[in-house]
From TrEMBL:
This is MFS transporter. InterPro entries: MFS, MFS_dom, MFS_trans_sf. It comes from Kitasatospora paranensis. Residues 9-456 form the Major facilitator superfamily (MFS) profile domain. The keyword Transport applies. It is a multi-pass membrane protein. It comes from the Bacteria. Pfam families: MFS_1. Keywords: Antibiotic resistance, Cell membrane, Membrane, Transmembrane, Transmembrane helix, Transport. It is found in: Cell membrane. Its main location: membrane. The chain crosses the membrane at residues 42-63, 75-94, 100-120, 132-156, 162-181, 193-213, 225-242, 263-282, 294-320, 332-352, 358-381, 402-421, 433-451.
Amino acid sequence: MNRHSNRLTFGVLATGAGVFALLQSLITPALPTVQHAMHTSQATVTWVMTAYLLSASIFTPILGRVGDLVGKKRTLVAALIALLVGCLVAALAPNITVLIVARVLQGIAGALFPLSFGIIRDEFPASRVPASISNLSAVIAVGSGLGMVLAGPIVGALDYRWLFWFPVIIVAVTALIAHRYVPESPTRTEGSVNWLASVLLSGWLVALLLPISQASKWGWGSTKVIGLLVTAVVLFALWGAVEARSRNPLIDLRIMRLPAVRTTNTAALLFGGGMYAVWAFLPGFAQTPSSAGYGFGASVTGAGLLMLPMLVTMFVAGIVSGRLAGRFPAKAQLITGAVLGAVACAILAAWHGQQWQVALAAGVFGLGIGLAFASMSNLIVQSVPAAQTGAATGMNANIRTIGGSLGAAVMTGLVTGHLQASGRPYASGYTHGFTLLAVFCLAAALAAMLVPTRRRSVPAPVEAAAASAVRGPATPAAAPAPAAAVATAAGTGARPENARR
């Protein structure tokens, strides 16, 4: 693949993944508007977000695996079409039920993340893979926060339905270009989708994420929450047993147990807890009237603008991350990103009386997110065989989401546990919450320190172990030389020359 084709492919991947990331946060500030327009309750309208979260959690690893099996480009186009249909249905939704169904359809496109990383690994020259993954991670990170900035102006000038009409237009064009110009990846895995494992994976993810996301309404001690959490544990155990015995596992658990993958996923869980909680609660903090003893009484648009420093710094950090890979390895970047996240949360806990203090903390946190997002993706891609890229990066994204759900749930308990007579939270709730998020980020940094340092030479026993971690040979046309295959599996970053097109 020549440089022009690389740029076009990257543009398609970045647009698709960016729009999906944007839709994660774009609708959140507009939920009160949607509730009023559709004459529904606050409890019901929250399912607009919950349905999206659950759908993405289920389909991200499953379609990542499907892409490894049947072709990443084909699966990418299918995910884009699902996103297009979901946005179209949402824009036309006559009631809240149809809108929730539309969000489920949109969530299918969560697979765009692992599929995009896999296509970059398969199609781009080895020297450009780290920078390309970092750039894509920066786009995803910025997209995830940009919705909070854009939602207010779009809803104010037009209507909340335009939050979906704009993506309809963009995704339609992106899907057509992807179908026409993105090449099909040469690396395939033999086998089939383990549907029993898929059902069990879906089951335990729903049983885990649903009570966490609804615990503030149902109560942590309620029968619903406890019952679903117990169900999640049982289904997780069954899923692990099925995967361990399967000849064609959906998620190869031996890959998940590789030291670099295990420690990176642990850091993702903890850092995700801090990141998503800050995204969820910082705008609300800014919108609180100063009569509550804190906050700035900002509008939705004003609160979004206060997040701009975070978006700018996370984009810059993500772009720079890949270019510094040779002198600033991914492990060091992940540690630095997590520490910066902890510093930002500490600033928010100690100094939040002025808008510039919050903006400063947001900028520091953006640097941390940019470095952490890019380095986590690069560490996973470097550490697994090419045929497992989709499933492994999909699970990393899921684990980050699970961490985010846990962090948001804990923050909700701290912020809303004790309310003023006006019904607003006390400042101490935010202070304690941001302090705990700083601890989350520090723990992520400690986990990142345990990520094994990549070595250029790999002992024979490790080579054999890495090779045995791959279930099923590649298709004949894509089979790499044995040495290159072992180097890739061991995380050295070596790639077969015939994969560079």
